Amino acid sequence: MSPFATKGYAANLTEDSHEYIMSDQGKVTVEKDIFGNTIIKDEKGNKKTIKKDIFGNKVIENY
């Protein structure tokens, strides 16, 4: 059985938020902060931030 994702949208005044539910990986929330960085949070509390450095390279930070 292959995994599939369902996408849900949430209305939020300060940031754009999307939730994805993977059949075998759990719930993942994808948000954009005010600086344009992408923040990925899973249901276990793990958090990754994807942002660009001053040279335009993408940097992934784990929290």
What can be said about this structure in brief?
With 63 residues, the protein is mainly β. The chain has one domain (5-62).
Write out key terms for the chains shown.
single chain; 63 residues
Protein architecture, described:
The chain is elongated, with a radius of gyration of 13 Å. The protein is built from no helices and 6 strands. A 6-stranded antiparallel beta sheet has the order 1-2-3-4-5-6, with no helix packed on it. The chain is mainly beta. The chain has one domain.
Topology:
Layout: E1 5-10, E2 17-22, E3 26-32, E4 38-42, E5 47-52, E6 58-62
Antiparallel strand pairs: 1-2, 2-3, 3-4, 4-5, 5-6
Rg (CA only)? 13 Å
Large-scale geometry: elongated
Structural class: mainly beta
The helical percent reads under 10%
- Beginning-to-end CA distance, first to last residue: 31 Å
Order of helices and strands: EEEEEE
User: Which stretches are poorly predicted, pLDDT < 50 over at least 5 residues?
Assistant: 1-6, 8-15
Question: What is the average per-residue confidence, as pLDDT, rounded to a whole number?
Answer: 75
Strand order of the largest sheet: 1-2-3-4-5-6
Secondary structure tally, helices? 0
Task: Tell me the strand percentage band.
Answer: over 45%
Structural domain count = 1
Task: Tell me the number of strands.
Answer: 6
Largest sheet: 6 strands, antiparallel
